[in-house]
Amino acid sequence: MRPVPASDACEHAHRLAFGVPAQVIASAPGRVNLIGEHVDYHDGCVLPIAIQRRTLVTAALDRSGRVAANSSTEGHAEFACDAAEPATSPHWSNYVRGVVAELRAFGGAIPGATLRIESDLPPGGGMSSSAALSVATTLALSELAGLTLPLLEVAQLCRRVEHRFAGTPCGIMDPYASCFGRAGHALLLDCRAMRHEHIPLPLGPVRLLAVPSGVRHALSDGTYQQRQAAGFRAAALLAGPGRTLRDASWAALESESAGRLIDSEALRRARHVVSEMRRVREATGALNAGDWPHFGRLLSESHLSLRDDYEVSCDEIDQIVAVLARQPGVLGARMVGGGFGGVVVAAVRSEACEAVIKALEESYYKERGLLERPFELQPSDGAWVRSVVHRE
To answer: 202-376 — its CATH code?
Structure first.
């Protein structure tokens, strides 16, 4: 996708779309989760980065009683400010609808608004375009409404939007990473304690490569919820009612009684989650020690677990991982995101990066006629909002 325009270009686009100047501009990054997939809703720890691709939202209040949202990639949507329900079918505007409804519940005065949305995050691309949209919209509209929300409250609000308006019962990781990312660092987030630590990324000898598959996923189609439910079934038997798989031990999971009491599907889902939590701990230690080979091996282990135990990969993703595994200088790779498409993240020695990208172009992109290409990830700062100053 084309890069998101600079702030002044977004402000100009807002004036062109609505005939009025923007009053605020907000920006929120996408994220790539380095490791810790499908563990946030089991209270585990995750290790994402905020990335350089972002969503920008310009906004202005009016007295129309309606919210008009114009997206450079998705089109136009309009709805009443007091609309308390999502659109009847999945639609990108449900994220905006949900934010408006949540802010009004906080007492935010939104008599009407216009929003212009620019993004270089592909929907369904595994880089959390929905969280970036929700976070940027929340920051823009709360600024206009005079609400001061701590970033943790912003992240929690955006998770509620995913649950209530998008039909995706996700964890906290995506909006949290979009809010709290820091340039040059990964974010070690404890999803139970809601606390985080910024982990420096010593990227000199290694680059992190994002490899888009060109396959879009939709997490509201039920497959995500089925895997959640299987994990919760296993957690209730392994750790007790109301507990999560964070409370389950590997010994309990591998015990003879677990094999008798838990159905095979739930046991596989639990095996991924519990082993992935261990991999997050090891990956954090590897980064702190600058041990990129060990970090890469953990990425590859994570992919096998997601493919075989959680069963959320797909042929295209597996082909990319296989191509990467054959290339000298690739330390490890895995799928990222909810699954069934999206993006692969790879740790690649810096001197091999150009050759690896060329191999991917020859072995994957050209044969499929895809315009997307691999790109280097730049761990970036989190979301921000500011007022627009108009100079005469």
So the answer is: 3.30.70.890
